[in-house]
Every structure is written in structure tokens, then in C-alpha cells.
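Workshop exercise sheet. Pairs work together: one partner reads the sequence aloud, the other fills in the structure field after running the prediction. Swap roles for the next sheet.
Pair: D.N. / O.F.
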Amino acid sequence: MAHQLRDRKVAILATDGVERVELEEPRGALHGAGAKTDVLSIHPGEIQARQGDLNSAGTFSVDRLVSDASTDDYDALLLPGGTMNPDQLRVNQDAVGFVKAFVDTGKPVATICHGPWTLAEADVVRGRRLTSWPSIRTDLRNAGAEVVDEEVVIDGQFTSSRSPDDLPAFCAAIVEQFAQAGSPVSDA
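Structure field:
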């Protein structure tokens, strides 16, 4: 099972303020299952990570600008949280457009903590069942989602979790969900 995501490529959309553990642990689980990942962002270079939103927690290298990315290049999408990260993404036209286009493909999307804010902005949560960090649940309800308080929620192409405390279950769930998705994108 260590290679169940071989030949799969996952886009991780994040920017400054991303909660380090919410990018690092899922990416590690995906790599451990054989996937390749790209960190997409709204600016080149590096993005600043945070721990608990308040403390600086190093950086991540940006692999590609979201404005230059195509949904055709990826088999799945990961939206980590941190308060500042999705708050910046949801006001960026390229990021919101990519998320909307990705959801429209029907490919799997995983999100944790504050990550669903970008999904709400892309207007893709109406009628979907999700969980999130408590402070954005009203925003998700206002965007038409059914919001629940559970460790991991799977609804069709969406997998969501509430917080870093849920990471073990979230990581296992995204590997399984991403593996069940259709044929991998070819590198041709």
C-alpha cells in the first residue's frame, strides 16, 4: 500500500500564513503513498508558515504560481489552513478561479481548518457536507454548506477536517480518497 498514489500529482494551494503542520503532515502522507506534490501560490519564491497562527514557523518553497497552473496537471487538490493563508487566497482571483475550475473537474479536494474559506469564496460548497475550524462555520453555512463537527467528513469529492488535532485521521482519509479517484494524470 506504500505506493497507492504512485503516478498521482497533487496541487497544494497555499500562501503566507499557512499553518505549517497542515501543509507538512498531509504532504508527507501523500509522498509516503507515492504521490508527487506541487506547492502552488499567489507569489513566487517562498511562503511564510505559521504555528498556531501567531508564531513564525519557517518557509515552504513555491513550485508554481497558481496563475500558471492548469487543473489538467493534477489529480487532487489540498487546501491547508491557517487563518491568514485562506484569507489571502479567497481575495485572489487566480486562486479562487483555480479552485472553482478544479472542483468543476470532479477530482478530489481535501481541506482542513480554515482551508474551506477558499471553497466558500469559489461558491462550490452549496449542498455539500463539510467540517472546519469553528470560527468559519457560519461562513460555510451562509455559502450553502451543511456544516458538522466531526473529525473527518467525506462528501463526494470533498474531504474535510477541523484542526491539526484531526491530522492523523485526515491524512489517512486523503490518501484513501485520492487513491480511489479516477486514472492518474499522465506526465505527457
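Discussion prompt: The chain has a mean pLDDT of 95. What would you look at next?
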